[in-house]
From TrEMBL:
Belongs to the shikimate kinase family. Residues 320-347 are annotated as: Disordered. CDD domains: SK. Its EC number is 2.7.1.71. Pathway: Metabolic intermediate biosynthesis; chorismate biosynthesis; chorismate from D-erythrose 4-phosphate and phosphoenolpyruvate: step 5/7. Pfam families: SKI. This is shikimate kinase. It comes from Volvox africanus.
Length: 347
């Protein structure tokens, strides 16, 4: 598979030869200029949202209830392991905090999102890229753009799965030398070992969701866009049931590959989010935190490696002293003194 020439190459990155089937002429830059979310816009939009107004009203009410000495029900889910996710102001503060720390140490390292269909790689990826001020790529969309916007399902039908996987691998290879990218991969990108070689140059994050949750999401979107789910679906069958079954068997084959990821993020939702999974900002926060932990651990490990003592350093220093011109002169003078009838050293 030849080069897709996705984006303008920086100096030093050599283009591969072209492919007759995938002409560079069909391609165009796909760095996301369209920014549906940024950390700032998200914070602002949510500060003004009815959700936040509701929280402000609740806080006000609970203060007045407390003032009367009554018990307060703050409306939060008991036992929620991430209680701040239910408060958008608090969550956006936490996102900012972790992003500030991570951005200092991430140094442009790429973030690769892997996971099953419907796990939200594209949705979370866009928000993450804007928060980190990274560019966003979705390998499925790049392949579609490379084929005059032909949908993935049509490429599968006309060219076959192998051809699609070759395009996917080519894109992964071509993107890996760049920096400051969030890349949402196709659900099957984990299957090829050579893809891991490129993805592991960056940090690979698995968005790990329950099969029922994924099936609900892809059924809502319609499975016809996803050829591996739509293939051989019995007519009139319940789409969600079909999706659940197929996703289940794909996950069984793929789990061991997804487990190679550097970071695993659960999509589990609590309380009101039980049905749809954790909201996108919450998933992004979980992901930022997990990546930050990884990056900080690496930094500590590197600092420890630098903090070593050379055994015998003292002797090395003495040797250097003896070899210095002054030490050599005084050693020579002493030797000469010895030769001129100096006293023999005491035993
Ligand atoms: N946190 C979320 N809460 C609710 N719905 C979500 C969330 N994240 C994604 N979705 C919805 O789930 C569906 C699948 O999301 P998305 O396309 O981002 O997944 P994907 O992993 O990129 O899938 P694929 O690999 O099939 O392209 C979309 O309809 C999207 O709106
Ligand atoms: O899980 C998969 O194998 C796929 C997922 C989609 O993102 C597309 O890449 C394609 O439909 C194949």
């Amino acid at each position: 598979m030849a080069s897709l020439n996705l984006i303008q190459r920086p100096k030093g990155v050599t283009p591969a030869s072209r492919n007759a089937q995938v002409h560079a002429a069909h391609l165009r830059p796909v760095i996301s200029r369209h920014a549906p979310f940024t950390a700032a816009s998200w914070t602002k939009s949510h500060a003004a949202s009815s959700h936040n107004r509701l929280w402000a009203r609740r806080a006000e009410l609970s203060r007045s209830v407390q003032a009367c000495g009554a018990e307060v029900d703050d409306g939060r889910t008991p036992g929620h392991p991430y209680p701040w996710e239910e408060d958008y102001d608090l969550l956006s503060d936490k996102v900012k905090e972790v992003t500030d720390e991570l951005s200092k140490d991430l140094r442009g390292c790429n973030i690769w999102l892997v996971g099953m269909m419907g796990s939200g790689k594209s949705t979370v990826g866009k928000m993450l890229a804007n928060t980190l001020k990274y560019a966003f790529f979705d390998t499925d969309s790049v392949i579609e753009l490379a084929h005059d916007k032909k949908p993935v399902s049509q490429i599968f039908a006309e060219e076959g799965q192998d051809y699609f996987r070759n395009c996917e691998s080519q894109i992964i290879k071509e993107l890996s030398p760049y920096r400051n990218l969030v890349i949402a991969t196709g659900g099957g990108a984990v299957l090829r070992p050579e893809n891991w070689g490129y993805m592991h140059i960056g940090i690979v994050c698995w968005l790990n969701g329950d099969i029922d949750l994924l099936a609900r999401r892809v059924a809502r979107d319609g499975i016809e866009k996803r050829p591996l789910l739509a293939a051989d679906a019995p007519e009139g069958a319940d789409v969600q049931v079909v999706a659940r079954e197929k996703l289940g068997s794909l996950l069984e084959q793929r789990r061991r590959y997804y487990e190679n990821a550097d970071v695993v993020v659960t999509l589990e939702g609590y309380g009101k989010d039980m049905e749809n999974g954790a909201p996108t900002p919450a998933v992004m926060y979980r992901l930022l935190t997990a990546v930050n932990e990884k990056v900080q651990a690496k930094k500590r490990e590197q600092a420890e490696r630098m903090n070593f003592r050379i055994e015998g350093a003292e002797q090395l220093r003495n040797m250097r002293t003896l070899e210095s011109p002054a030490a050599a002169a005084s050693a020579a003078a002493a030797a000469q003194g010895e030769g001129e009838g100096a006293q023999p050293p005491s035993p």
